[in-house]
Amino acid sequence: MTATTGHLHAALTLAERGVPVLPLREGKGPMGNCQVCRENACGGRPNMKTPGPCTCPAPCHAWAAATTDPHILISTAWAPAWRQAAAVAYHPGGAGFTVVDLDNADAVAWARRSLPETTTVVTTRGEHWVYLGTVTSRNGVRDGVDIKSVMSYARWVGTGTGSMAPLPDAVRALAAKGPAAARPASSVVTVSAPAAGGQCPHRSPAYLERGIAMAEQRIEEAPDGIHKTVYRMFLAVLSAHGRCGCLTDAHIKRLFTAAQGRGESLRHCEDAWSNAVAALGM
After folding, report:
1. Does the pTM of the predicted model rise above 0.90?
2. In terms of C-beta density within 10 A (0-12 exposed, 13-18 middle, 19 or more buried), how is residue 183 classed?
3. What pLDDT score was predicted for residue 49?
4. For 14-23, 39-48, 163-172, which range has the lowest pLDDT when averaged over its residues?
5. So what's the pLDDT on residue 170?
6. Are residues 188 and 266 in contact, defined by beta-carbon separation less than 8 angstroms?
7. Got the DSSP string for 160-184?
């Protein structure tokens, strides 16, 4: 069985159980938006609480494209997506679940002290604790802890162990509270601006300031998909200002502060920055 058929088989099995699924590309990201659905116009709007409806011929906007319809999953239109897929994801909220995503050993230790036992799935970095019930999805409610439920997706890594418990009040309280406060940027930023050597094309320092401020605003106002938004903003800033010497470590601290204010961990920020630098060949 190839990876492609293996992912599709897993997706069909989950769909049969009533779990909405979609393919993930390499790097655990969803397939990109198609032109018709640019900016999630036909199903991924922030005010929607269930997947879709999507009339596109392919999975185009993360959780909103997740489906339980086997005819869509095996359709010719979705075949290219499955050929590119590196994993399967699902929409927990669409299945009536909430996933507490524990991203490191400290987060797992906290969950074992603070949360009732439930279905537990081991991941590459930590564990997923899966509860029955839905809640607003939030990233960064504690260091290394994300809540994935309504309008979010989680990678499928197996059925796990243990019986699924009802969603506890402790998780509902964390979701209602929102992301934890960011740590001071001066103590966490460990990346630097790329080495410069190009000619500066900027008309004035205000051009760079507007670019940084716009990136901060878009990160702070992103309704969901914060990982993807942070990467896009880092990429945009680097592509415009990363080669001429205008971009400084102080600017990077501002971007990291905005991202951490939305619940991004330092590790996610560093990974997004490094990936953007690599993508631009810096």
Report:
1. no
2. middle
3. 42
4. 39-48
5. 94
6. yes
7. -BSPPEEPPHHHHHHHHH-SPPPPP
